[in-house]
Amino acid sequence: MIKKFEIKSHDGxxxxxxxxxxxxxxxxxxxxxxxxxxxxxxxxxDREIAEFNVKETLRLARENVDECxxxxxxGSKYIDLRIECLKQLEEMGYNGFIxxxxxxxxxxxxxxxxxxxxxxxxxxxxxxFIFSFTELAFMPILTYMGIDGFLADSANYYSYLNVLQxxxxxxxxxxxxxxxxxxxxxxxxxxxxxxxxxxxxIHAHMxxxxxxxxVEERSGTTPQNVSTLKIxxxxxxxxxxxxxxxx
Length: 247
Fold this sequence. Notes:
By secondary structure, the chain is α/β, with parallel strands linked by helices. It contains 10 helices and 10 strands.
């Protein structure tokens, strides 16, 4: 049940495309995806456990290949396991992938860059990648690295933590009572509205070939964000330049 993915243009490694007719990068809701069952695990675990979880994830993906259209790339902190998981899932026929442990990767800039870029280099051109539980300020740089979509679940996840997500900052409403007496449902709605705004912002910048400008602007929002950009520029310049327009 492969999803149709067409690449229309690039802004750096970032891709404007269409997934089943809808413009990407985009926000994905779980009810529009048929995600394979998988064996999840923590990010920083022993290799033997990570190997077992990848094996189980692949078994479940194979058993459900006729019913599902998006698979999950497990492997914890081990790049070779992530790549092995990706390649075997592609061989089964999947072309849509959720990168597991997204929240942990955001706090480890070096690992974030290594995982995303390694998977992108190894993946087929018609494969697309979805990031889960992202902070909004990270969406531009993740798009710049080649991520094609984001799970809407993050709006609910952060509302459950009583956290307001904005395009530039993340506010713990227990410490910064910007909205008092706001319900979790109302907070989730605001987080989703802000997420949709950032997607529109990304689309506008990609149309104008200025995504890199937005990435640099947002890089100052957190130490992790600026570190991610510095590591990306230092270690992946050939990858960045491959699709960068020359003026």
